[in-house]
């Protein structure tokens, strides 16, 4: 590889390292082109997988501020650059490595911390971002429903009291009007009429 090509390759690697939410380094010895395609698909959206020379990766990592131990940069190396759900990509790598023993997970880098192979596998055991968000949304929905119920309860009680008062006022208003407008002499016939109505009922 010419010097200019090396410089370009290092710059590209450094940019990928900076833009990634996490990376996982693997040894890909013996994988076919078809298997590599399957592996790339298993990483999920926002992730890429590329073969990289160890010497260039070491330089690029230093430029990007990513600390990678010498153990990670031995043998044939390919790097999973992950943008987005790191857990989903780790699961994809772990499951692929189980089905294809030629793929070996060497370690990775996440949130400013170097990970060994076991830590990457533990990361794969976590729940994915989608599952966690779904659980969080469910919990928030339940909390909001409870909060709405608490707010609505006093409002509903107040509404019922207001309705009852309005009904009571409506019932009392005609009786008061009749008492004010009708002469005292007409009170007896009204009582008799009421009695007749009651007897008919």
TrEMBL record:
* Keyword DNA-binding assigned: no
| Record key words, sorted | Ribonucleoprotein, Ribosomal protein, RNA-binding, rRNA-binding
Return one GO MF term. Answer: structural constituent of ribosome
Pfam families assigned to the protein according to its UniProt record, in alphabetical order: Ribosomal_L10 (PF00466)
Record-linked PROSITE patterns: RIBOSOMAL_L10
Give the record's GO CC terms. large ribosomal subunit
What InterPro entries is this protein classified in? Ribosomal_uL10, Ribosomal_uL10-like_sf, Ribosomal_uL10_bac, Ribosomal_uL10_bac_type, Ribosomal_uL10_CS_bac
Locations of Low complexity compositional bias? 173-192
Q: Which GO terms describe its biological process?
A: translation
- Region annotation Disordered: where it falls in the sequence: 172-201
Tell me the NCBIfam families matching this sequence: PRK00099.1-1
Q: Assembly state and interactors? A: Part of the ribosomal stalk of the 50S ribosomal subunit. The N-terminus interacts with L11 and the large rRNA to form the base of the stalk. The C-terminus forms an elongated spine to which L12 dimers bind in a sequential fashion forming a multimeric L10(L12)X complex.
Q: Which family does it belong to?
A: Belongs to the universal ribosomal protein uL10 family.
Q: What HAMAP family does its record include?
A: Ribosomal_uL10
Function, in words: Forms part of the ribosomal stalk, playing a central role in the interaction of the ribosome with GTP-bound translation factors.
Protein name, entry field:
Large ribosomal subunit protein uL10
User: What gene codes for this chain?
Assistant: rplJ
């Amino acid at each position: 590889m010419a010097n200019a090509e090396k410089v370009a390759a290092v710059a590209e690697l450094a940019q990928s390292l900076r833009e990634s939410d996490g990376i996982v380094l693997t040894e890909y010895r013996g994988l076919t082109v078809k298997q590599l395609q399957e592996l790339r698909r298993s990483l999920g959206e926002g992730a890429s997988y590329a073969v990289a020379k160890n010497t260039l990766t070491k330089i690029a990592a230093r430029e990007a501020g990513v600390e990678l131990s010498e153990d990670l940069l031995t043998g044939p190396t390919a790097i999973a650059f992950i943008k987005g759900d790191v857990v989903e990509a780790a699961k994809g790598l772990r499951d692929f490595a189980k089905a294809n023993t030629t793929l070996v997970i060497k370690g990775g880098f996440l949130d400013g911390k170097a990970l060994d192979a076991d830590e990457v596998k533990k990361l794969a055991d976590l729940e994915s971002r989608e599952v966690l968000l779904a659980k969080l949304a469910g919990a928030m929905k339940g909390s909001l429903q409870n909060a709405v119920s608490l707010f609505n309860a006093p409002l509903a009680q107040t509404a019922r009291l207001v309705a009852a008062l309005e009904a009571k006022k409506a019932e009392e208003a005609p009786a008061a009007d009749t008492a004010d407008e009708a002469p005292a002499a007409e009170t007896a016939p009204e009582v008799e009429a009421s009695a007749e109505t009651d007897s008919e009922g």
